[in-house]
Amino acid sequence: MSALLLDDDVFDSYVEAGRVAARVLKTGAGTIKAGVSILEVVESVEQMVIDAGAGLAFPLNLSLNEDAAHDTASIGDERFFTEGDVAKLDLGVHLDGYIADTAVTVDLGDHALLVEASQCALEAAIALVRPGVTIGELGGAVQQEIESRGFRPVANLTGHGLARYAIHTAPSIPNLSFEGGAALEEGMVFAIEPFASSGSGKVSEKPRVEIFQQISIKPVRLPSARKILEAVRERRGMPFARRWIPAERQDFALSTLIQQGLVRAYPVLADVPGSVVSQHEHTLIVTGDGCIVTTA
């Protein structure tokens, strides 16, 4: 369906979700300073979305240094930002299920070139967006900008399509060049999400898990597990944070739900220890002659 022929309410929801996300992300990024509580930043940013009359498409991701994605504050989190940190703030906002996904990197150290690498990669990819351009071409733009500054694009993280209540759909937007791949079509909604790394350019899972997602619906017998499913029913399959759900027997209940195939876990994804990763992201709607960046 053409972006220009979308139902007015749907199109307006995408655009307004983007406006809210852009405003909240900018405000939230400005609160990140050495000595500030990570939990306070996360909770305040999430509350700003709610106060704006929107919903959270996923828990605010706040990942530090070599951690690239999927971290958020834990219950009673006692971590504070410190001098030298590189913090990735990744925010998802939805209105009636129509999602805006955007991210920025805040440098509390001396990593300006690394931050520039992911930002310029995003801008270069956006400049190419129009019907007929392939996702491989977008990946090539990302890779060139990052490598030209001496860093590695993270090969196993990608941008992604967006649909109603669905955060990761086709097409995947790579951070590397390749021949061919899906061609962009008018009306597509997706996020471009470059990650630049001083490390290996590949992320792997860490033990820390604070984000989960319901992936199936079926009856469960364990009362504490039922309470979790009741608490996240209104999420309609969008991810949730551990700190959003009932605390009673939480670990056992989550383990049970994961084992039964009802919930999946999202471990923190990180490059090698001692490396640093930067991230930038915008959501776009492809138009007949280019795109609308909803989160600009």
Task: Give your account of this protein's structure.
The chain is of the alpha+beta class and 296 residues long. It folds into two domains: 3-203 and 273-293, Creatine Amidinohydrolase (Alpha-Beta Complex); 206-268, Winged helix-like DNA-binding domain superfamily/Winged helix DNA-binding domain (Arc Repressor Mutant, subunit A, Orthogonal Bundle). The chain contains six helices and 15 strands. Strands 7-6-8-14-15 form a five-stranded antiparallel sheet. A hairpin with a 2-residue loop joins strand 14 (282-287) and strand 15. The protein starts with 7 loop residues before the first helix and ends with a strand.
Runs in which pLDDT lies below 50 for 5 or more consecutive residues are none
Beta-strand proportion: 25-35%
- Largest sheet, order of strands side by side? 7-6-8-14-15
Along the chain, the helix and strand elements come as: HHEEEEHHEEEEEEHEHEEEE
Note the topology.
Elements: H1 8-29, H2 38-51, E1 55-64, E2 67-69, E3 86-95, E4 98-107, H3 112-128, H4 135-147, E5 152-153, E6 159-163, E7 166-173, E8 189-192, E9 195-197, E10 204-214, H5 223-232, E11 240-241, H6 250-259, E12 263-270, E13 277-279, E14 282-287, E15 290-293
Antiparallel strand pairs: 1-3, 2-12, 3-4, 5-9, 6-7, 6-8, 8-14, 9-13, 10-11, 10-12, 14-15
Helix pairs in contact: 1-2, 3-4, 5-6
Question: Characteristics of this structure?
Answer:
single chain, 296 residues, alpha+beta, Creatine Amidinohydrolase, Arc Repressor Mutant, subunit A, 2 domains, 5-stranded antiparallel beta sheet, 4-stranded antiparallel beta sheet, 15 strands, 29% helix
